[in-house]
Specification:
rod-shaped; four-stranded antiparallel sheet
Amino acid sequence: MPRDHSREQPQWLLARHTALTARQLLRAYGLLCLFSLVIAAAFALRGLWTIPVFSFAELGLVAAALQHHLRHARDYEHIALRDGELIIEQVSAGHCRRHHFSPWRTRIVVPQGPRQLIHINDMGDAARHVAVGVFATPERRRQVAQELCALLPPYLGP
């Protein structure tokens, strides 16, 4: 049976890429703690108490850095064209921001440089705009922007 392409709703997911899962990261931190505390205990037994103090400070700073990393490990941007509406969902540290744009009043700015993001502007309201593509490579950003431009109707003006 042939697929009905007219009913498909295009969408893009731009997510942060991480090399380690949360469990692997916590195991690595546990091994670091074990190794560091064994060395700190050996120095403490010899009477050098400054080493354990610095060891605990180091482990505390690494724990804070890992907590920040884990908080942002699931960040993503989701772009979807559904039911005649362009929906952009940005999730950062568990906080979700959702933007809705009318395709007839939306202008997509394709990134030209490697550090530029995709800018989506509401031409009816100049204050409404959003930049997406933080987690994508420059090539992927350009590809998504070009696909969006091809799917959205041209802006005809006021």
